[in-house]
Design a protein that fits this description.
Length: about 260
């Protein structure tokens, strides 16, 4: 096939164009509202200056840019490391890969978790629960206290009760067990989050920006149930909607035999 009767175009060329467009679109969605947008603009400006230097044949500046060109790739990887990690996490979460890498989550465990969240929502008890999937959460587990307990609704409700010394911070669940409590999660700086979301919700989004974890939040002020995944917060879920999303999210697990 010829484009305008002059340039030969193969089907593989069209596929390549579509793929490149998809990658750049995903990069834009990932970087939107973050500091990376400004950094990317600065990088484009630097490349434009290099182009002008080559066109005008400025010998000294050409030598300087030539010396720096070898570290461009390394600099890009370092500067855009969070965004590159998010894109790789997105690729790893495609439905096909998720089905190949992990079996279905334990229904009884999900039932206990949803029942606990329903109770806390009705009682307006603030809660923050992170579910480990493919990416390890050891660095966050180490900020809290190891529990290694079997999941039950009564235990989860007891942990987040305001009279409990363990209620501050997040609970991390892995392999059908409550791995740790009082964990500190990274707080998101995304401008996409509205003013109605406090530190607990921003911590939920922050963890999903850096890992593929699935996080559930119960608002202490309103009792609303929210979930965070891939840096996106969805609020105001019903118990049935939560159960559906949690079941789908927990179909990705890091190892056989349990949730997480």
């Amino acid at each position: 096939m010829n484009l305008f009767g002059i340039i030969p175009v193969r089907l593989i060329d069209l596929f390549e164009i579509l793929l490149v467009a998809l990658v750049f679109y995903r990069l834009y969605i990932t970087m939107r509202g973050t500091l990376a947008v400004s950094l990317f603009g600065g990088l484009l400006g630097l490349l434009f200056i290099q182009f002008l230097v080559q066109v005008t044949d400025m010998k000294v500046l050409q030598f300087m840019f030539s010396a720096l060109s070898d570290i461009y790739v390394l600099a890009v990887i370092i500067v855009f490391q969070p965004e590159i990690r998010r894109v790789l996490i997105f690729l790893g979460q495609t439905p096909l890969l998720r089905r190949l890498l992990a079996p279905v989550g334990n229904r009884q465990v999900i039932h206990e978790i949803v029942a606990a969240i329903d109770t806390m929502s009705q009682q307006r008890m603030g809660a923050l629960i992170a579910f480990k999937r493919t990416n390890g959460l050891r660095s966050y587990v180490e900020t809290g206290e190891s529990l290694q307990a079997v999941i039950s609704r009564n235990l989860l409700v007891s942990i987040f009760h305001t009279s409990s010394p363990l209620h501050d911070g997040a609970v991390i669940i892995s392999d059908n067990r409550i791995e740790a409590v009082r964990c500190i999660l990274p707080v998101s700086r995304s401008k996409r989050l509205g003013m109605q979301f406090g530190t607990r919700h921003r911590a939920a989004v922050g963890l999903t920006e850096e890992t593929d974890a699935f996080v559930v939040v119960v608002s202490e002020e309103t009792g609303k149930i929210s979930v965070a995944e891939q840096g996106v917060m969805v609020s105001g879920l019903t118990v049935e909607e939560l159960k559906s999303q949690l079941s789908e999210a927990m179909s990705t697990r890091s190892s056989p035999g349990g949730l997480g």
